Amino acid sequence: MTEYLFLFTIGPVQSFIVQARKTQDLYAGSFLISRLCGFAAEKLVEGYGGKIIFPSDIFAESLPNRFIGKIEADESSLQAIGKEIEKSVRDEFRDIAFKSLKKYDKDIFKMQIDTFLDIHWVFQPLSDYQKDYVEIEQILGSIKNIRTFVQISETGRKCSLCGERNVLFYRKRESEKWIKDNRPSNKLLPKLLDGKSEIFEYNDINLNKIIAPGEGLCAICFTKRNLSENDFSVKFNDSFPSTSNIALYHAISQLPEDFKNPNKFDAQGILALKDGKHLNETEFEYIEDTCKVYEQLKDKKIKISDYYALVMFDGDHMGKWLSGEYIKDKSRLEDFHKELSRRLTNFGKWSKEYICGKDDNIEKGHAVYAGGDDFMGFVCLDYLMEVMQKLRDEFDVQVNEPMHKKFAIGEKLTISAGIIIIHYKDPLSEALKWARKMEHEAKENGGRDAFAIAVMKHSGEIRKTIWKWNYESGGCSRNSSEVLKDLSNVLHNDKTGFSNTFIKNLESEFGSMKVVEDGMMKAELKRLLGRSSKITGDRKNKEVKNWSNKLKELYADSQTGYMESNFFSALDIVDFIARETR
Ligand SMILES: [Zn+2]
Fold it and tell me: How many CA atoms within 13 Å lie on the side-chain side of 170?
């Protein structure tokens, strides 16, 4: 018997998860991949006496799509073990899929199901953990470049969700409800796979959660929509809050208890009422109660925003960290992996609970996945600045600092975040694309340990800004997200703050200049802030001075690269957040 490292990965990840029209799709896709990976890890442990090195907890709600473990075995049995683990995952997925497809069991589903998962695994004899780990990653990388899985090419109408596979399930639109002949060959229906698709009626409201009128789904996406708690041993959320629910979190929290139950009103209905729409029964639920909640919000003059934020972050240089590049004593890499994974898993759990307000009862948003170095979540705009800063600070406290105490490492463990603020009516795919793009810009243009925020206004205007979390000079450290958060609190604040006119004026004066000299910026800030101030008495001068100093420093920090308009875009975005939340 020899000891081997075992590396296992499962996909598709990015494409599968982001193929989403609703927040539930996003969550279900990520959960499914996560659980299948956990299932493979369980197999290694239970079936073959293996040990998992990372992730540290294979039953966590969010897992990465890969794991690394150790196993003792004879060389001759390795192929069989790898194949057996792979097969058990494929069987598990087929079982889950067939539970939702059983009623409609046909060969064509099997083909879509069986060619879907992209699984790779490698064994590597273990003698020096660090060298063998780097080697096994390289082998996996080269295997993945040779795409071995079967590509099916189908002709016909493509699925509304993934756009890749053929439609096997279709629900009629309102304009098609009079059609009696449901055979897919009926020329009056959209052209589907002849004789092989299931057609649902327009008025079958039991299907509302699974397939919308006019939607056509493939077997994989139909499975995604049908996942339920019973399919898994780990808790699955079958009613992930919608983007309109999340946009309204803060507004609803200010109402009396009787009006707070999210299962008794339709969040999208509230936003439609705000737009002056009339609610009809095919589109909206709980119409009577929804109207009552809306009236309450109006009576209490509570601000209702149509916008929410999608936040993504990702550990910087994770590949280098895992390969041991930054630790001085390479022989400690295995311990380093275990400790890092344990800390990341705990941080992931904490961040998920923090966002949904487990401890303080303040629902700030909802995480889609929180694996530790990798996070995606929806956040209510009122809490965005606070959430960003808290996540970053806690990553430092829960992951970076303790890792430094335990291991001799040269670099800081950091994260970069991408945030999009977007209207609830804009397609979710757009939000996902932009959050990912901003995360990329925080890393590439912001030099990592940074965040990038974009606002996509419903008018079509887009503004974006990129900042390091911290700036240091002359022995002083400045936290840029904190300054922006504090600014959002004093803007549009009638008693103690400033109107936004100073932002507009400042940008029209200086927006086109490459560099504004320090003294000039400070003097102009002071003058304009004075004119925008709503504060009276002695405090006015103090606050004007305080904010002209802070903003002058922020301006100086913005001169470190990125984009010329970075400072003005940041002020505009903070102003937008303040306006939407007050
Ligand atoms: Zn699909």
Answer: 25
In this structure, are residues 219 and 165 in contact, taking their beta carbons and an 8 Å threshold? yes
Decide: 576 and 455 in contact? Cβ < 8 Å. yes
DSSP letters along 150-210, please? PPP---SPBPTTTSSSBP-EEE--GGGTT-----TT-TTS---STTT-EEE-TT-GGGTTT
pLDDT digits (tens, 9 = 90+) for 460-485: 899 999 999 999 888 889 999 999 99
Which of left, alpha, beta for 576 (phi over 0: left; psi -120 to 50: alpha)?
Answer: alpha
From the CA of 429, how far away is ligand 1's center (Å)?
Answer: 14
- pLDDT at position 110: 86
Contact 26, 64 (CB under 8 A): no
Contact assessment for residue 333 and residue 409, using Cβ atoms and an 8 Å cutoff: no
**Ranges of the chain whose pLDDT falls below 50:** none
CA of 28 to the centre of ligand 1 (A): 13
* Plot region of 44 (φ>0 → left; ψ -120 to 50 → alpha; else → beta): alpha
Distance CA 278, CA 287 (A): 10
CA of 162 to the centre of ligand 1 (A): 4
C-alpha 200 – ligand 1 centre gap (Å):
17
One-character DSSP codes across 274-335: HTTPPP-TTT-S-HHHHHHHHHHHHHTT----SEEEEEEEEETTHHHHHHTTTBS-GGGHHH
- What is the Cα 282 distance to its own chain's centre? 30
Position 314 scores a pLDDT of 95
As beta bridge partners, residue 467 has 451
Quote the CA–CA distance of 485 and 388 in Å, as a whole number: 9
For the chain, domains (ranges, CATH) are 2-145 (3.30.70.2220), 169-217 (no CATH), 241-254+302-468 (3.30.70.270), 255-299 (no CATH), 476-582 (no CATH)
Ligand 1 midpoint to CA 63 (Å): 23
Q: Show Cβ contacts of residue 136 under 8 Å, excluding neighbours closer than 6 positions.
A: 5, 7, 68, 122, 124
Nearest of 285, 266, 263, 103 to residue 205 by alpha carbon = 285
If you measure from the C-alpha of residue 375 to the centroid of ligand 1, how many angstroms do you get, rounded to a whole number? Answer: 24
Looking up tokens 């063998």 gives 132
Q: Which residues pair with 70 in a beta bridge?
A: 5, 51
Strands 365-370 and 66-73 turn out to be unpaired
pLDDT (tens digit per residue) in 408-452: 998 999 999 999 999 999 999 999 999 999 999 999 999 999 999
Residue 357 burial (10 A CB sphere; 0-12, 13-18, 19+) = middle
Residues 6 or more apart whose CB falls under 8 angstroms from that of 181 comprise 188
Task: Give the pLDDT of residue 33.
Answer: 95
Residue 418 Rama label (left phi>0; alpha psi -120 to 50; beta)? beta
